[in-house]
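Good day; I would like, with your permission, to put a structural problem before you. What I wish to show you is a protein chain and, alongside it, a tokenised description of its three-dimensional fold. I would ask you to consider whether the tokens describe a fold that such a sequence might reasonably adopt. You will find the record immediately after this paragraph:
***
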Amino acid sequence: MIAVLTMAFGTTMLLGGIDLAIVAALEEAGQVSWAAAVVTVLGVTSVIGGLVYGALSRSLPTWLLLGLLGLLTVPAGLAHDWRWLCVAVVGSGLLTAPTLSTLADAVSRLAPASVRGEATGLQSSALSAGFALGAPVAGIAIDASAPAGGFAAAGLAGVAAALTGLLLSRRSPARTRSPLGGPGLAGAPGPEPRGADARPGVSP
């Protein structure tokens, strides 16, 4: 679950950074009035990506989708015109909805039904924290370099979260825990049988 929350944080940190980097790139080019057009392309391609991904018979790992999202975000900083920027964000847009949907699916699968509400709350907190931190980090990178630095910072944040999530998921021990830290054991035996199914010589 920690791996999923880490990737949720990284995903929205990336998305928050992209928004600021788009405005900064267009402001530098004197075309900030076209920011709405670029963001619209990002949103429409996200919808298309979600529909296509939903039609697939087999899902992809969350870390892979997030890693690709991050890698495709970095080159967007090379665009210095609103038309090319529209083209540059297509890759990021196509992977946005699939990444978010796999995160939600992972939480629903990993969290036991008794604590699913708490797990969903933790996911929402991770997503909100990512959005809150994404813009400031991208802004620092932009101030220190150029608008392209904002895209690089956002993309690399996504890649780092994907790699961290992959390592955490592979190092997960056999003993699992609920999202709130409750112990559980993968493959643990169920409760002792009672009644007619009880073992001879053992009081139910």
